[in-house]
Amino acid sequence: MGGDFGPRITVPACLEALALHPELHIYLIGQSSLIDPLLANSNVSLKRLTVIDCQDFVSMDDKPSYALRHRQNSSMAKALQMVNEGAVSACVSAGNTGALMALSRKTLGMLPGVDRPAIISAVPTSEGCCYLLDLGANVDCSAEHLLQFALMGSGMVKAVEGIERPRVALLNIGTETYKGNEQVRLAAERLKVQPQLNYIGFIEADSVFDHCADVIVCDGFTGNIALKSSEGLARFIAAKLRINFSQNIYRRMLGWLARPVLKELQQQIDPGRRNGAAFLGLQGIVIKSHGGANQDHFVCAISQAVQDIHTDVPGRIRDTIASQLGQLSRE
Amino acid sequence: MGGDFGPRITVPACLEALALHPELHIYLIGQSSLIDPLLANSNVSLKRLTVIDCQDFVSMDDKPSYALRHRQNSSMAKALQMVNEGAVSACVSAGNTGALMALSRKTLGMLPGVDRPAIISAVPTSEGCCYLLDLGANVDCSAEHLLQFALMGSGMVKAVEGIERPRVALLNIGTETYKGNEQVRLAAERLKVQPQLNYIGFIEADSVFDHCADVIVCDGFTGNIALKSSEGLARFIAAKLRINFSQNIYRRMLGWLARPVLKELQQQIDPGRRNGAAFLGLQGIVIKSHGGANQDHFVCAISQAVQDIHTDVPGRIRDTIASQLGQLSRE
C-alpha cells in the first residue's frame, strides 16, 4: 500500500518478479479492492500469488511512535508478523521508512549483540558497487554502534557478493587519523583491532565511487546526506544534459543519435537500479524500496529480498557478530 | 607555495588575474627562487605585482596545532599578518586548510558575536547557485553555532549576490520538524524567530541543487560530506561519459560531434568554476582555493577575493550579527 504510487506500481512489479524468480511465492497484503483489479488481466500463474486483505495501512505521514501504537493491524505490521511466524521469508515495502523500522524492530527483534538496526544499500562504483550504511535509521551513533554496523555490513557483503574479506572503511572528512568527530576517531580505534574485519581506514566522500572499499560505515545522518547529495547531483546532471541537447535542431539531432549512450549513462547512475535497502541487525529480512520507485525499481527491491533469502544474510550477520562476541568473552 | 602544484599554477594564475582586474595589486609571498623564473617572460606590468621572499612555508601535512606553534614565519602566516596590518585587503591560499583556518583565527581574530569561523562556498543549482556552509571548519556544532553560520551566510549572500532577503535553510535528513539530530532541531527553533533571517525550514540533501534556498546551513562534517559526495559523483559521471563515448568508432565520432555539449556540461558541474571558499566570521578576508585547483580555478579564487573586497563581506556580516545582538539586548 506504500510508496508514492501504491498498488498500481507494486502489483505489476510483483507479477514481473514472479516471472523472473520461478521459486518465488508472493503474499500481497493490503486492500484487496485495490489489488484484485490489477491482477485481473495477469497471465502469471496465480498459484504463486496470495492476496491477503487488510484494510488498515500505515500512511506516509505517520510518525514511528504513532505507527507503533495505532498501526498494529496495518498491512505493514501484518507482513512483519508473517516474517516473524516464519510464514514468509522476507518483507518488502515501499512505505514509511521510520514506521517500517520501528515496527520491524518491535515485531522481529534484534540479533544478539546488535543494539540498533542499520539501513544498507549498494552504491555504484567505477568497478561494480560498494555498500554504504547506515543510511538514516540512526541519527546519532556511538563508536560501538559504528563497530556493529561494520560487522553487519561485512557479514552481508560476504554473503551477497561472495567477497571473503570485504574492505571496510569509515566515512570521514579527511584520511588523517586526527580528522573527524570523536565518534569516528574512536570507532577507528575499535575497528582496527577486530580480526573479523578487514579495516582499511578513513575514506572521504568523494572516493565513495572509486571502488576503494566494499563496505563504508557512517552514522545515519551522514549516510543519508551522502546518498541524497549524489542523487540530487545525478538528477541535476540529467536535467542539464536534456537542456544542453535540446538547444537547437542540430543539437536535438545529436541528442537523438546519442540516445543509447546517454541512456546507458542514466542506467549506470540510476539509484533505482540498486533499489532495495536492507534493514540489518533484525531477526529476519526486511527490504525497503524507495518511495518513488517505479515498476522496474520495485522489481529490483523484490530481487534484493530473494538474494538476501538465498544467501541467508541474517544468519551470516549472526555468525559475524557471534564470532566477535566470542572473541570478547575470551579476552 | 601551497596546493598540489605550488607556484607553477598560482603564479601564472596571478598574472591572468591582474589582466582581468585592472585595479588589482598582488603580493606574492613565498620562495622567490621558485617565483621569479615564472615571472621572467610575463608581459603583465610588474608594477602591480610584488614578490616578498619568504623561505618557510606550511606543508600540506602540518597539523593546525603544529602550524600555530612552528609556522609563524611561513608565507601563509606572513600573508595573514599583512591582512591584519591593512597592507593588503585579502589573503588567497591553496594551502593546508586546517593550518590556514588556525592561523587566520589567531592572526585576524573573530568578528564580535561570532564564536567560530565557517567555510562557505557556492554550489551550482538549476537557476544559478546557492551557498553552503560550514564545509569543514567545525566538525561539531551547537544550535548557537548553526545560528551564527546562518546569519553570516545570509550577510554574505546579501553582499555578493545582492539578494535582499536570502532564503536560509537547514540541511537535514527530512523536512518534517521531528527529523534530524538534536542540534539541527534546536537550531530550527532559533532560526525561525530571527527577524534578520528569511528562514524557510529544513532541506534534504537531494534538493541542494534545485535552487530552493540561497543559503544552506549545516555543521562542517555534514557540509564536507555533502560537497565531496557530489564532487565524487560528478567525477564518476564524467568518467562514465568518456568510456561510453569511446566504445567503438561510431560512438567516438558521436562523442567528437557532441564535444561542445559535453564540455558545456563539464563547465556547468565543475566545482573549480566556483573555486574559492571564503572563511566567514574573521576580521578580514581569507579565501581558500581547492588544493588541486588548476590555473583557471585559481583565477576564480582570486576573483572571489576581489568580489568579497568590493562588497565588503566582513562588514556586511558584522552588521548582520550586530543587528541580531542589538535585538537580543533589547529583549
TrEMBL record, chains A, B:
One Pfam family hit: FA_synthesis
GO MF terms held by the record: phosphate:acyl-[acyl carrier protein] acyltransferase activity
Annotated localization: Cytoplasm
Enzyme class: transferase
Pathway entry: Lipid metabolism; phospholipid metabolism
EC assignment: 2.3.1.274
Catalytic activity entry: a fatty acyl-[ACP] + phosphate = an acyl phosphate + holo-[ACP]
Presence of the UniProt keyword Lipid metabolism in the record: yes
Biological process according to GO: fatty acid biosynthetic process; phospholipid biosynthetic process
Keyword Transferase: yes
Xref: InterPro entries: FA_synthesis, Phospholipid_synth_PlsX-like
Binding partners and assembly: Homodimer. Probably interacts with PlsY.
HAMAP family xrefs: PlsX (MF_00019)
Family: Belongs to the PlsX family.
Name by which UniProt lists this protein: Phosphate acyltransferase
Source species of the chain: Nitrincola tibetensis
Lineage: Bacteria, Pseudomonadati, Pseudomonadota, Gammaproteobacteria, Oceanospirillales
Gene name of this polypeptide: plsX
